[in-house]
Write a structure and sequence with these properties.
Layout (H helix, E strand, L loop, with lengths): L5 H14 L1 H7 L3 E2 L10 E5 L3 E4 L7 E12 L5 H14 L10 E15 L2 E13 L4
């Protein structure tokens, strides 16, 4: 197993989301790994934590990365957040991302969860990435 490609995967996911016209338009470019200082937008996207497990075999090293992309809104309803979540799912599901380290062999939607958090809304969209890290 190798955890070597994790930063490369995050960079590629971030680049895909920030360059996707639908996601960019719906979020106004508010896509973050870490929130900037000062007031936060009323709706934004955050890259979440990840879980990684070994997927090595006799051919080479590999890992399976499960990670969420989270839509956070202080709005009373779910509609806008769900619209953004759908655009994120469209952008990332089966995306052919080029990693700076390792090779992405698959990227799939895994699950989602929409919930109320305080007075706002939060939608976690989980994805599973398969990475061949033999060359990482």
């Amino acid at each position: 197993m190798s955890y070597a490609a994790t930063a490369a995967l995050q960079e590629a996911v971030y680049a895909k989301l920030t360059s996707d016209a639908a996601v960019d338009t719906l979020t106004g470019g508010a896509i973050y790994d870490a929130l900037p200082p000062g007031p936060v937008p009323t709706i934004y996207v955050s890259l979440g934590p990840e879980r990684v497990r070994d997927a090595s075999d006799v051919v080479g090293d590999g890992a399976v990365h499960d990670f969420p992309v989270i839509v956070i809104s202080d709005g009373a309803g779910f509609h806008t957040a769900k619209t953004i979540a759908a655009a994120i799912s469209d952008a990332l599901s089966d995306a052919d991302l080029t990693l700076s380290r390792g090779t992405l062999t698959g990227l799939n939607f895994l699950r989602a969860r929409a919930r109320r958090v305080g007075n706002g809304r939060e939608i976690e969209i989980w994805f599973r990435a398969y990475i061949d890290s033999s060359d990482a």
